[in-house]
Amino acid sequence: MPLKTVKKDTAEAQTLEWILQVQDYKLTLDKNRCVGCQICSLACPKEAIKVQKQPKIQGQKAKKAKIDVELAKCNFCGICDVTCPYGAIRVTMNDEHLLSVVEKKSFPQLVRDIKVNPENFAPGFVGTSRPCPIDLIKLTFIAPEGKPIEKTGASVPAEVGFRAKIDVDKEHCPCCRVCEFTMPPGVMHVRKFISGRISIHPERCPEGCTDCLDVCPITGALCLSDDRRKVNANETFCVYCGACKAVCPVDEALDLSRTAVNHTPVHSGTWNKALERLTSPTELTKELKTKSSFRARESVKRRVGRAVE
């Protein structure tokens, strides 16, 4: 048991801490990065994380849901850290980023498959002033004489000889793929690490309500209809985090489901339970069947190999 427990809550962050004889466990929730989605609360095996919908003030935009971590239930396993699409939660031991569930191989890492090809920038390309909706891309152009010219947008100087340098904050990237469409073709390739489905039912969606659109962190994932009366979903950019679902005033108006998670290989009941909460028993069964088929194929390969030898 810890000698001392501490919980601090400020406008910028929520911090939980276990202080032991030789170890200091700390969980930090960065409120600026947190979008109020559902992922961490669903993944948490201790049900220590609560998603709290904020009151709507008449005439103002909806506020993102508030995430609260209960110190009495949290055991600093790090599952919330691993699964947060936006990297808003960090768990450390003695100030080192150490995740016990990953170290013990009872939980996988999510795979953020992001490929960058800056050589595909063409001189004179004019793109958006904001290639990443949450500002995780730093774009720098190198002049022919070697002088760097930092730019916030994706517009390329027309002069021949400029080279592009792209720095992506992959740790906090939710893999929405917006950059693929705002950058020149072939510069960015992003594979979503959470797949799913989202649909908004117009007949159930309150007319004039834009709560989900107000809180969605990914520009273009949700948009207003042509008559500006209903909200439509664009699955090309949606990361299925559930920030919209957390604030929707009508449960039946918005359906969101996660069908797959791209992760490193792992054989673990802890992960299977988390995956079932994040997706569904049906999708969990599909993954288990896939793993079983893979193991069977590998077993046959090994036996055939020995027979040949």
Explain what you see.
The strands form 6 sheets. A 4-stranded antiparallel sheet has the order 1-2-3-6. The model has no long low-confidence stretch (mean pLDDT 86). It has 309 residues and is of the alpha+beta class. The longest helix has 28 residues, at 281-308. It folds into 4 domains: 4-103, Alpha-Beta Plaits, CATH 3.30.70.20; 113-190, no CATH class; 194-261, Alpha-Beta Plaits (2-Layer Sandwich), CATH 3.30.70; 279-308. It is globular, with a radius of gyration of 22 Å. The protein has helices at residues 39-43, 79-83, 100-103, 178-182, 211-215, 243-247, 269-278, 281-308, and strands at 4-9, 13-19, 24-30, 49-52, 66-69, 89-93, 113-116, 137-142, 148-151, 163-168, 188-191, 194-200, 222-224, 231-233, 254-261.
